[in-house]
Write a structure and sequence with these properties.
The protein has 68 residues and is mainly alpha-helical. The protein has four helices and no strands. Helix 2 (14-37) crosses helix 3 (43-53).
Length: 68
């Protein structure tokens, strides 16, 4: 099932674009960790692991202030 198209105003929002970019990184991390584990680790586990080990550096590399 295709995801609904977001509102055009929402697509221009830097907050929304950053959310989508972060979500994409978490999904990549989930794939890598699942491959390493030999099973699907689930989104929640990937999210927590990514936030603990990679989020700060990822945000700094994108020029985002803080880690929230």
């Amino acid at each position: 099932m295709a995801e609904p198209s977001p509102d055009p105003l929402l697509e221009k929002s830097s907050l929304y674009r950053n959310f989508l970019a972060e979500r994409e990184e978490i999904l990549k991390h989930k794939w890598i960790k699942s491959e390493e584990a030999g099973r699907d680790i689930g989104f929640e586990a990937a999210l927590v692991d990514w936030m603990l080990h990679h989020r700060r550096e990822w945000r700094e590399a994108r020029g985002m202030v803080g880690t929230h």
